[in-house]
Specification:
The complex is a heterotrimer of chains A (about 300), B (about 325) and C (about 425). In chain A, strands 2-1-3-4-6-5-7-8 form an 8-stranded mixed beta sheet, with helices on both faces. Chain A has helices at about 30-40, 75-95, 110-115, 120-125, 175-180, 195-205, 220-225, 230-240, 265-270, 285-305; strands at about 45-50, 70, 105-110, 130-140, 185-190, 210-215, 245-250, 255-260. Chain A contains 10 helices and 8 strands. Chain B is an alpha/beta fold and about 325 residues long. In chain B, the strands form 3 sheets. Chain B has a 6-stranded mixed beta sheet, sandwiched between helices. In chain B, strands 7-10 form a two-stranded antiparallel ribbon. Chain B has a two-stranded antiparallel sheet with strand order 8-9. In chain B, strand 5, helix 2 and strand 6 form a beta-alpha-beta unit. Chain B is globular and about 65 Å long. Chain B starts with a strand and ends with a helix. Chain C is an alpha/beta fold. Chain C folds into 2 domains: about 1-245, Rossmann fold (3-Layer(aba) Sandwich); about 260-390, Rossmann fold (3-Layer(aba) Sandwich), CATH 3.40.50.920. In chain C, the strands form 5 sheets. Chain C has a 6-stranded mixed beta sheet, with helices on both faces. Chain C has a 5-stranded mixed beta sheet with strand order 4-5-7-6-13, sandwiched between helices. In chain C, strands 1-8 form a two-stranded antiparallel ribbon. Chain C starts with a strand and ends with a strand. Chains B and C meet through helix 6 of B and strand 9 and helix 9 of C.
Chain lengths: ~300, ~325, ~425
């Protein structure tokens, strides 16, 4: 593979193509990821959007995009991507579109859609080997409607629909594993707080074709309950505690880009977030914290043993 | 009917304020409507909520167009045209503003002769940059209507806030009382506005919509990145201010940590913050390795800037 | 031009072929599946240059169709019944996208209970979606309607999806003679797809179908969709006139059969309307002045043409192959609202529900409907809406219920006088 144009953080773009002035919350980790992805992909990109927080990126008559955007519905954004990709290919073949008028197709969805109502459409797009990037901003809940429990809500996190209990009783769905089980061209986890890692991965994704997953953890100040100023810090803690592994799937193999060493205890990540406050107050819930830690430890043990 | 409108920023508790007042009026024997009005805006963005109260069942619906009582939780909102704070204000409207600027100055600035009451700065601060002033402003509103007793107000606060725990109840009871007591001079000064007579009204200017072609008449935008016309800088209550003397010019750090991408690089290689769009998340303040960016209250920063400008003007040779 | 025996499904595939479609997103459902299978075969045999892709649902299929049409290719797709309803969210959405494309719906009754056989509840559920609707009565009309539908859909004043409806079984699986236009003639009538309205390509910023805040913007966009649909009335007349000039077949938006001097009119849509024509002829033979009024286009509703066809009649029978529970026949409501306030409007408009879930409407029933209308006109009393359902059918039903161990008990269980109220309303 060609050497990355991003050798160090100072090589990251200092001006950005996504327009400011969007309605995303202050400190939005999802917006940061979308902006960084767009910088690398460039303006000849079409974002095909599923209903979610990012619906409000473009509110008539204003858009932050210099290229294209299509708002579809919650369940079928990958099918919208299919229609656009197919039509572009037909027109390129017919000669009614020049090669330089081609677009990179990016489906943009939140975790609620990605793991729930939109999973069927996504899965089918992978079956069809659709040439697209699937960018999921994972804020671990239905963020745009006020953070209700989604299939990506982590175990134990309190949400608007799991408020009084011990938080989300189930387990976060493993979207990365669902994708890689179906052998896509590429899959990677990223987050805005690690912009260099993100830029290199998008660079790789851009150089490939076929179905490509970019799963971006999106720290959400109002949904997770922390001050917007801590958004980057919370994201980095997710990596350093091992809760959010930075990895990529390429040529049929999963590679962990950063094995946190030493791994910080999970409570360093949990404690600053209101959604986990019940694990620490009024009494510390050692059992639950221990369970969360054990799951993280087990994951990394598998990585060390070469099984993950 | 009494029509009351609360203006604030997302996160300042205007919905709670409208509910507190609504419950207090309901407990005082009135028929009540209360509702928040949401847009696509987020924390820090201008929003409003309203309450209607009457002795009869209320049939009017939707936004309060012309308020009898207008409460403003954040005085910087007067400068935000999209906030529409002064919309529908008549000569009879009573105003209450959380501000340290005198009512004389406000009357002068707003070019009105209406009564304006000032709410004292609260001791109740939910978090640093967004003081939750809901209970205080609801207490003030209750007193100004003259329809709610102190005891009923406190009952309403207790009921509405109970779900947030005893600590929150205590803080809010205190705040509500503070607001209520501060308005003693204006007790009952709000007057019910008259109903619109059916025989003298402004005729609606209905038009017959013509067919426009789909290129125009579909919800599509062909501009590029025109979202910059939306000044999200108005959401900000704190301003990140760079001290170039401390700055190490590692602009990729603050620049890439800004979710909105509003930190660029100036000609001298320093980070340049676009204050028209900076939402005031303060990530750059936290991320700057040299602590060269400080969080300054917005109003303070604006005032300081104006002083500098005036000083510069004075110092200029004529 | 060649004449061949074709099923309605084959006719639909031919329509798509003659329209030189670029793109077919597809999903199987009975009784539509033959359409996509036929096109797939033609693509495989190099008879057609078209990209076909199998989606995983009708919801996705319609999304892909709308997205492709937005990107500048002539798009065709087909569904039926449950599929149309599964895609309903996107039907409204793509109308709001203002994209040209043609969707075939092969009408079939809706669940529950699930059935494979035809009625019109599926297509009428899409009545208010913003997609235009043409309703075919013959396999010939299916081919022709598709060509006309593309002309209409791609008309700059209109730019809305068009649904071409054909009845399951009675058209979809039934062969009858069809005149196929040759390729050149079809291409002359329907020129190549214009790319200038395509939204998406590099170097041209386009944000499509963005959110709006507030009722002002929303009302404008929605009402413009309505105005565009209304503009389709004249646009349709132009497209149909040119079609007639070129191919000699005439498709007025409202077909009137022996209706000019008729005192009584049947009103129907779809393939059973040809049976009504037969009944009209027999009734005319018997000396009754009766005609048929068949809206070929149901959206936009050609109100002026409908009024012209029905004002001045002494009585009307609207025969609905659909049922809006709690209201009755959907077409009946449409027709009466069009007549309301007209001077010389018929005082007597009878409502019949028939042909649900593939139930036949036999010619004797048309004769009896005509007799009912004559009696109602004479007496001035309009009978309650009637379901076309016979004693024998109920007897058979009771046998099945007995087998299912759900025997009916109580008054009126078997004699066929229970159920619907028999009250009469005076006009």
């Amino acid at each position: 593979m060609k050497e990355s144009q991003f050798k160090a953080a100072r090589d990251l773009p200092s001006s950005h193509i996504l327009g400011a002035g969007t309605a995303m919350c202050a400190g939005c980790g999802g917006l940061g990821a979308v902006r960084e992805v767009y910088d690398v992909l460039g303006k000849d990109t079409i974002f095909v959007n599923a209903a979610g927080c990012m619906t409000l990126l473009s509110v008539y008559p204003f858009t932050p995009f210099r290229g294209s955007w299509l708002y579809t519905a919650m369940a079928s954004a990958p099918a919208g991507g299919q229609g656009v990709r197919d039509a572009l290919d037909i027109r390129l073949e017919q000669g009614s579109l020049r090669k330089d008028e081609d677009l990179q197709v990016v489906v943009l969805t939140g975790d609620g859609t990605a793991n729930g109502i939109g999973l069927s459409a996504t899965s089918a797009a992978i079956d069809r080997q659709l040439d697209f990037i699937y960018l999921c901003y994972d804020n671990e809940g239905y963020g745009n409607t006020g953070q209700q429990t989604s299939a990506a809500t982590p175990h134990g996190a309190r949400t608007a629909t799991d408020p009084e209990t011990g938080g989300m009783p189930g387990r976060k769905k493993d979207l990365f594993a669902i994708w890689t089980a179906n052998r896509p061209t590429y899959a990677a986890t990223v987050l805005a707080a690690e912009p260099l890692d993100l830029a290199r991965k998008i660079e790789t994704a851009r150089s490939l074709s076929g179905p490509r997953l970019i799963l971006a953890l999106a720290p959400c100040p109002p949904g997770w309950g922390f001050e917007p100023s801590r958004s980057v810090e919370i994201g980095r803690l997710a990596v350093r505690t091992g809760i959010f592994p930075l990895k990529e799937y390429i040529d049929g193999r999963v590679v962990h880009n950063r094995i946190p060493h030493p791994r910080l205890p999970v409570e360093d990540y949990l404690k600053p977030q209101q959604r986990f406050a019940h694990l620490f107050e009024p009494q510390r819930d050692d059992k639950r914290i221990g369970e969360i830690q054990a799951a993280v430890d087990a994951y990394w043990l598998e990585v060390e043993n070469g099984h993950a | 009917m009494y029509r009351i409108r609360f203006h604030g920023r997302g996160g300042q508790g205007m919905k709670t304020a409208s509910r507190l007042l609504g419950t207090a009026l309901f407990k005082s024997g009135l028929e009540v409507q209360d509702a928040p009005r949401y847009g696509a805006e987020r924390r820090g963005a201008a929003m409003f909520a309203y309450v209607r109260a009457d002795r009869q069942p209320i049939r009017e619906r939707g936004n309060v167009v012309s308020p009898d009582l207008l409460l403003v939780a954040d005085d910087t909102l007067f400068q935000v045209p999209v906030a529409g704070v002064m919309a529908g204000v008549t000569a009879e409207t009573v105003l209450a503003v959380a501000s340290t600027t005198s009512e004389m100055i406000w009357r002068d600035r707003l070019k009105i002769a209406n009564p304006i009451y000032l709410l004292p700065h609260s001791e109740v601060v939910a978090d640093d940059d967004f003081p939750d002033v809901s209970a205080k402003i609801a207490g003030a509103a209750a007193r100004l209507t003259g329809l709610v007793s102190e005891a009923v107000l406190l009952q309403a606060v207790e009921e509405e806030i109970a779900q947030f725990g005893p600590k929150a109840v205590k803080l809010n009871l205190h705040a509500a009382l503070e607001g209520f007591q501060a308005m003693a001079a204006g007790e009952g000064s709000v007057r019910e506005s008259a109903d619109l007579p059916a025989d003298s009204y402004e005729k609606p200017e209905w038009i017959d919509l013509d067919l426009d072609l789909a290129a125009t008449a579909a919800p599509n935008i062909h501009a590029a990145a025109n979202s910059v016309q939306v000044r999200t800088g108005l959401w900000r209550t704190l301003r990140p201010v760079l001290d170039p003397k401390i700055c190490g010019k590692c602009t990729w750090i603050c620049g890439s940590s800004c979710p909105d991408g509003v930190i660029g690089v100036d000609a001298g290689g320093y980070p340049e913050i676009d204050y028209d769009h900076c939402k005031g998340c303060m990530i750059c303040v936290v991320q700057c390795p040299r602590h060269a960016i400080a969080a300054i209250p917005e109003q303070e920063a604006v005032d300081a800037l104006e002083k500098t400008k005036t000083a510069q003007l004075k110092g200029m040779p004529s | 031009m060649t004449r061949a025996l074709l099923t309605g499904n084959a006719a639909a595939a031919w329509g798509a072929r003659l329209a030189r479609i670029d793109y077919l997103p597809a999903f199987p459902i009975t009784p539509q599946t033959e359409i996509i299978e036929t096109i797939s075969r033609w693509i495989g045999e190099d008879e057609m240059r078209c990209r076909m892709v199998m989606l995983e649902s009708e919801h996705s299929m319609l999304t892909a169709a709308g997205a492709a049409a937005s990107t500048g290719v002539r798009t065709f797709t087909a569904t039926s019944s449950q599929g149309l309803l599964y895609g309903m969210e996107m039907l409204y959405t793509i109308a709001g996208w203002r994209v040209p494309l043609v969707l075939i719906n092969v009408s079939r009754g809706l669940s529950a209970p699930i059935t494979l056989e035809p009625d019109h509840n599926d297509i009428l559920a899409a009545r208010d979606s913003g997609c235009l609707q043409l309703h075919c009565a013959t396999c010939q009309e299916v081919v022709d309607a598709i060509l006309i539908a593309y002309r209409l859909s791609e008309q700059p004043q209109v730019r809305l999806p068009v649904i071409v409806n054909l009845d399951g079984f009675s058209l979809s699986f039934t062969r009858e003679p069809v005149s196929l236009p040759d390729d050149q003639a079809a291409a002359h009538y329907l020129p190549a797809f214009r790319h200038d309205a395509a939204e998406f390509r590099g170097g041209h910023p386009a944000s499509k179908a963005v959110a709006v805040l507030g009722g002002g913007a929303y009302s404008y966009f929605r009402y413009e969709t309505h105005l565009a649909a209304l503009a389709a009335i004249d646009a349709y007349d132009d497209a149909a006139r040119e079609f007639e000039q070129q191919f000699g077949r005439r498709y007025p938006s409202v077909e009137c059969y022996r209706n000019d001097d008729a005192e009584i009119s049947f009103v129907m849509i779809g393939s059973f309307a040809t049976k009504a024509k037969d009944a009209v002829d027999r009734l005319r033979d018997a000396g009754h002045k009766i005609g048929l009024v068949r809206p070929f286009m149901l959206r936009p509703l050609p109100e002026a043409d409908l009024r012209k066809a029905l004002v001045g009649k002494s009585g009307i029978a609207v025969i609905d192959q659909n049922l809006a529970p709690g209201r009755g026949g959907i077409l009946h409501g449409e027709v009466t609202s069009v007549l309301y306030g007209q001077q010389e409007r018929p005082a007597t408009v009878l409502s019949y529900i028939g042909g649900l879930g593939g139930r036949d409407i036999v010619i004797e029933e048309f004769f009896q409907i005509a007799a009912d209308v004559r009696a109602a006109v004479a007496s001035g009393a309009t009978p309650a809406p009637r379901l076309l359902y016979t004693r024998n059918e109920l007897t058979d039903m009771r046998k099945m219920q007995a087998a299912a161990h759900v025997e009916a008990t109580g008054d009126g269980a078997v004699d066929g006088t229970g159920g619907a109220p028999s009250k009469e309303t005076t006009a």
